[in-house]
Amino acid sequence: MDKLVIEGGFPLYGTVGISGAKNAALPLLAATLLAPGVHTLHNVPDLRDTRTMLKLLEILGARWERAGHTVRINSDHLTGVEAPYDLVKTMRASVLVLGPLLARSGFARVSLPGGCAIGARPINYHLQGFEKLGVTTHLEQGYVEARGEGRMRGNTIYFDIPSVTGTENVLMASVVARGETVIKNAAKEPEVGNLIDMLVAMGAEIEGKDTDRLVVQGVDRLHATESAIIPDRIETGTYMIAVAATGGCMTITDCIPAHVSALTEKLLLCGVEIEAGATSLTVSCPEIGGRSLCRLRSVDITTLPYPGFPTDLQAQFMALMVQGDGTSIIHETIFENRFMHVAELKRMGADIAIEGSRAVVRGIGRDKLCGAPVMATDLRASASLVIAGLSASDTTEVSRIYHLERGYENMVEKLQGVGAKVNKVKA
Ligand SMILES: CC(=O)N[C@H]1[C@@H](OP(=O)(O)OP(=O)(O)OC[C@H]2O[C@@H](n3ccc(=O)[nH]c3=O)[C@H](O)[C@@H]2O)O[C@H](CO)[C@@H](O)[C@@H]1O
Ligand SMILES: C=C(OP(=O)(O)O)C(=O)O
């Protein structure tokens, strides 16, 4: 098993280019099942999760080829309807094939994802949405079997919580249902917008992009098309926090600054300087006494659905707040168990107490974290530990980095490119 060895304390200077978003690539790849023909997707990041999704499409009968970040998928002849346990257990987003398979074949069998490190994560909203469209679902030996009686029928679907993949899954089923579907309290994440753009290019009729009310007029058929994955806002935010934590000045290119505005506001309050261009962000720590490592004001965050502060940046922001000059309250409202990084950060000297869904982070100031062997428990917890390691004295070893490889393309190379002393070694 590989691990990362990080020698901390070196400020980051230079430029990092942002890859396509994992959380947009996964639903857009699944959407290629909706219509026969050759679909072209650009800016697809090469990650463990996108490789898993391509493997799943292959199991279902699609054929694909990759040239750099462009993937061509031929879904003319689908031969399967099942997402097996072995794949779903490595990637929950495998459930995103349910909607397209129902739309294309009227039947799908998908292993029910279990809980994961960050929470129970049920898919009841997905299933309730399909049932509203006339689909029957039942559980058989750990698999969800979903069957439509003839063509699905449009309906009004209300989500208690604006589920991101729930919205995407139900949307993909509804675009070919008969009549009108209204999705109320839909997720407004930019990745949902990216999927809507692709579906519309395929011939779907959807109104309400970027709002919490989506109105779909079902169409008889869709066609293959060409789309591009949006830049990864979570990767963007991770590098913004990395430079705030480590000091220096980094220009982050190929990103959409508006997609990270909640984080930008918080970093400005911390005292970090940020200049936004059309597709770039320059993040720097003001120099004090010849060092770029400014004092860091502690600020509070509450994770919320978009455009609120993303839960996928909570762990990384905590790695920054442990170096603050006061107390920061970090309130996690999306997932019930997303503080697995706390125990590991404490091993590096952080002062954090968990009180239910809140973490009380008492900042220990700059230059106080010390390197340690730590273990990654999930994707963003891993990124948090990398940020802590980059800012700590001595050496930090992060094990179980396969989590990191699910969602960060070339992280080691990108960090080395801005002066970080980080290497991947065999454990
Ligand atoms: C592949 C992908 O896009 N993953 C993202 C997606 O996950 P995902 O789509 O799984 O997350 P959701 O938006 O569905 O989850 C939001 C909340 O709703 C709950 N819930 C959700 C569905 C359901 O049927 N029942 C239910 O109770 C979840 O347990 C959670 O507490 O959005 C999350 C929240 O922004 C991000 O952290 C993930 O990175
Ligand atoms: C939680 C995440 O992803 P997933 O929903 O794929 O587990 C994430 O990207 O931080």
From TrEMBL:
Predominant location: cytoplasm
Modified residues (2-(S-cysteinyl)pyruvic acid O-phosphothioketal): 116
Entry binding sites for phosphoenolpyruvate: 22-23
Keywords: Cell cycle, Cell division, Cell shape, Cell wall biogenesis/degradation, Cytoplasm, Peptidoglycan synthesis, Pyruvate, Transferase
Domain of life of the native organism: Bacteria
Residue ranges occupied by any Enolpyruvate transferase domain in the UniProt entry: 7-415
Binding annotation for UDP-N-acetyl-alpha-D-glucosamine: 92, 312, 334
Gene3D superfamilies: Enolpyruvate transferase domain
One cellular component term from this protein's GO annotations in UniProt: cytoplasm
GO process terms (BP): cell division; cell wall organization; peptidoglycan biosynthetic process; regulation of cell shape; UDP-N-acetylgalactosamine biosynthetic process
Annotated localization: Cytoplasm
Pfam families given in the database record: EPSP_synthase
EC number: 2.5.1.7
GO MF annotation, one: UDP-N-acetylglucosamine 1-carboxyvinyltransferase activity
Active site: 116 (proton donor)
Pathway(s) served: Cell wall biogenesis; peptidoglycan biosynthesis
Keyword Secreted tagged: no
Recorded catalytic activity of this chain's protein: phosphoenolpyruvate + UDP-N-acetyl-alpha-D-glucosamine = UDP-N-acetyl-3-O-(1-carboxyvinyl)-alpha-D-glucosamine + phosphate
Annotated HAMAP family: MurA
Family listed: Belongs to the EPSP synthase family. MurA subfamily.
Known function: Cell wall formation. Adds enolpyruvyl to UDP-N-acetylglucosamine.
NCBIfam families on file: murA, PRK09369.1
Protein name: UDP-N-acetylglucosamine 1-carboxyvinyltransferase
Organism field: Desulfobulbus propionicus (strain ATCC 33891 / DSM 2032 / VKM B-1956 / 1pr3)
Organism lineage: Bacteria, Pseudomonadati, Thermodesulfobacteriota, Desulfobulbia, Desulfobulbales
Gene (UniProt): murA
